[in-house]
Design goal:
Shape: globular
Number of strands: 24
Number of helices: 21
Catalytic activity: a 1,2-diacyl-sn-glycero-3-phosphocholine + H2O = a 1,2-diacyl-sn-glycero-3-phosphate + choline + H(+)
Domain PLD phosphodiesterase: 569-596
Pfam family, one: PLDc_2
Strand content: 15-25%
CATH topology of the largest domain: Endonuclease, Chain A
CATH class of the largest domain: Alpha Beta
Protein name: PLD phosphodiesterase domain-containing protein
Keywords: Hydrolase, Lipid metabolism, Repeat
Helix content: 25-40%
Radius of gyration: 27 Å
CATH architecture of the largest domain: 2-Layer Sandwich
Number of domains: 3
CATH superfamily of the largest domain: Endonuclease Chain A
Amino acid sequence: MEAARLGVVYDVDGVLRLAPLYRQWGRLRVLMSRGPRDRRSLLGMQRLLRTVADEGAADVFFLTTLPPALSRPLLAALRHDHYPPGTLLTAGRALFSGWLVGAGLVRKRAALDRLAAERPDTSWVLVGDDAGHDPELFAGFARDHPGRVAAIAMRRLVDVDRVVRHLRPDDLGGGAPPLVEAPNGEELLPRLRAVLGLGRVTGPPRIEDWFLTPEERGNPATRLRAWTEGNAVRLRVHGGAYYAALAARLAGTGAGDLVLVAGWRGDGDQELGDDGPTVSAALAGTARRGARLAVLLWRSHLEAFGYHVAQNRRLAADLLATGAEVLLDQRIRPLGSHHQKLVVVRRDTGADEDVAYVGGIDLVLGARDDIVHRGDPQSAANADEYTRSPRHDAMVELQGPVVRDLEEVFRERWEEPTPLARLPWHVVPDLVHRLPRRGSPLPAPVPDPAPAGRCAVQVLRTYPRRRPPHPFAPRGERSIARGLIKALGRAERLVYIEDQYLWSADVARVFAAALRRAPRLHLIAVVPRPEHDDRPGPAVLGQGEALAMVHEAGGPRVQVLDVENDEQRPVYVHAKVCVVDDVWAAVGSNNFNSRSWTHDSELVAAVLDEERDGRAPADPAGLGDGARGLARRLRLELMREHLELPDDTDLLDPDRAARTVRARAAALDAWHADGAQGPRPPGRLRRHVPGHEQVRLTLQRRWLIDPAYRMVLDPDGRPWGARLRRIY
């Protein structure tokens, strides 16, 4: 007998921006909730529906109590949120016929019964959540249509830490269909695939499996392409290596060339090498030789609050005197910043020497360190701990068509007509210092550089939704968050990250869901050691909350570590790196926190290398993607450095790499616990203690520290609708 055809019914009343009152109240409660177990979100629901539709050859139906008159805007909203194509089942008669207060169970059931009668050969997958009608609706339908329900998938929303009333298999009567539950679609998907017996659709690896499509970027106003192919990507790990490469590139520029620089801070007296030149001299030299030099620096907040507007003004004055143009940009949200780090060099020689640099290293004091990590020689006597500490950081050097896209990132900001600053205490000092208020037009864009390698590169960004809006991102852009979420949705074996913060529960929720979904997945994170372990402030408490969540989800598969040099001095980890299963790699300016994912301007280069690394395991995740050259080289280079290993033998296999990290970190911790007696064990990684234990919620923290952390240190730049639904 031929198997019944699959159909999916998804009750969307719980996912729309406009929702019944009880739904909005529930979203507010979830928004304010805390705890390492709270992984409730809409994460992965689109992928769940798309996967069942593709692998099960199923038609998708969207069920709602809203009336047919709203069909067009409802379908547009679902397309905007990247749900797969489907048919709308509208069960309501009028907008105010009880929908607003959550009525409509009877009408939804009638719509389901009609659908079942119209498709007698279809076996149904019913998808919803436990915060409304769905438990009763789906249980009743399954009882009255025995054998017609293939599975029920329920997203759990109601008090995940306390079991309240949930749909139980015995609610469904005899011959009950399988019931799967999880707090988000990411964790729900593998359970649903298992009970439906679905297998992955095989085929050659596709770039769009990892990279965002234009629709998924969510910003149709930008001129950026989805991605480019044919690029060369080189790793520039450590400030010393990056500065040397940049100094050489800048020294070769001349008349007709275009040099574009965007940064958070610029220290003109920072030396790019032991014998110079300084940042100011290197950039000024390009202008004196006839190149067009345009620089965008964040203006910065007031010096009284410890910010660096004076340093940026000094660098601007040095460069303006040479004929360069420098804009100090304050077009940000309150308490925000421009955090992008970018240098683009377009040559007029026709020799395909165009190049761009993206990553975490600014042109600042203290950043010129190397693999030994003794600190920047120039800053060794500096009283500022931030610039004196040894620092670990990373950039990528890119050549090929992606350079034109990175140039476009700069052009979009440069050409924005909004005034650079609007507040009087910003405008007046800038006028006093004779800083320009607008840049002159840049030269007309030239075509893409010729292909230079075998890497596909996607440019990802963060811009907040602000007023007045950015013309190139009127609703903001959160493609960094979306790109990382998409890549983590394919993670199976190892996610390796290095990050300055890793301290947002909303970000940690994404990693926690991946760890729950993939039982073989390891997470290895390298972060800075806190400066004051005995006085935990908002930052330490925020990181503790986030790390408690990933530890709760992954247990021993999660390792969070910090770094010290051979003199036992902490190394400040400033890198922003993520490698997923040795396939997808990302290097940029973003940190893993709400500020970088939603609030400040950020820039990331995500890379898929066409070149395969054939060393075993040749396909760590087992999805057919293989191990890619650039991603694997990046992970292995960083891990070899931190573990002081001579080769890659113990690092290629994800499980063996995780064991090696754990063993070497434990040995170094034990050596310290024993009073640092005897030979120092090899390796620089130590267990990161402050984030491992769950942070206790106290009244002081709830009313004093939490607001400071969430409003000042780690603000959220998403629209309220996105915050309430925990989406990006």
